[in-house]
Amino acid sequence: MKWFQRDREERPAGVVPLSGVVKSGSVPGQAPPPLTAGGPVLQRIGGDSDQVARMTTPAEPVILDITHQGRGHFVVDALDAGLHSQSQLVYTDGPFACRALVNAGDRTVRALRVQADGPWAIEATAVSSAAALDGAARCPASNVLRYEGGPGIASLCHEGDPRAEDGGYFLVDTYAPDGNGFLDELANHVGPWRGEAPLTGPCLIYARSDGPWSISVQPL
User: Fold this and answer.
1) Is 26 exposed, middle or buried, given 0-12, 13-18 or 19+ CB atoms closer than 10 A?
2) What pTM value is reported for the model?
3) Which domain of life is it from (predicted)?
4) What SS3 string covers the chain?
């Protein structure tokens, strides 16, 4: 699967390379409900076909609530000031809803390239809108969670994407609570996977997945 292009130049050795994916013809009838936890909308864009939309929010970390109602291909790329792709936020087929974190690294997103065959919408909200991780959570796709506890052990489970031949890609990173600064990588795997990783304290957890995943934290 190619859509999880890394948004940092250096990653640990041993990462499984991304491969092409052939999606099946089976897609859900409608998108799941938006994953937003509330908060004022800083920017709202939408359409029903391909579009390049300029980001008008300040150059600070924000969460994007992304939904697609079409039955065909849906791709969202984050672009820099030169309109080069920094990373792919979504690469899937059919109705879909997820949350994405942008501007959390040292490269600012200035525009979004959307490729879609049906109605879609993207809303930008502050990182304070991230849902709190209170012990455990299960999400249907990419999401941003807020962890406010102390050091603990995170147990992660990626159920995989049944529409992807390789089971789908699962990438989980942590950032400073305000989104300004990468902290650690908790997972980077293809297909169904289960494992543990350390959480050193309060942080934002950004998981990228187009299939269900879950996390639970056991404090030390």
Assistant:
1) exposed
2) 0.83
3) Bacteria
4) CCCCCCCCCCCCCCCCCCCCCCCCCCCCCCCCCCCCCCCCEEEEEEECCCEEEECCCCCCCEEEEEEECCCCEEEEEEECCCCCEEEEEEEEECCEEEEEEECCCCCCCCEEEEEECCCEEEEEEEHHHCEECCCEEEECCCEEEEECCCCEEEEEEECCCCCCCCCCEEEEEEECCCCCCEEEEEEEEECCEEEEEEECCCEEEEEECCCCEEEEEEEC
- Does position 19 have pLDDT exceeding 50, yes or no? no
Rounded Cα–Cα distance for residues 170 and 139 (Å): 12
Is a pLDDT exceeding 50 seen at residue 27? Answer: no
- Look at strands 131-132 and 143-147 and give their pairing: parallel
Quick one: pLDDT at residue 37?
Answer: 52
Share of the chain above pLDDT 90, in %: 70
Q: How far apart are the first and last CA of the chain?
A: 36
User: How far is the C-alpha of 140 from the C-alpha of 159, rounded, in Å?
Assistant: 10
More confident residue, 86 or 167: 86
Task: For residue range 175-199, list pLDDT tens digits in order.
Answer: 999 999 999 999 999 999 999 999 9
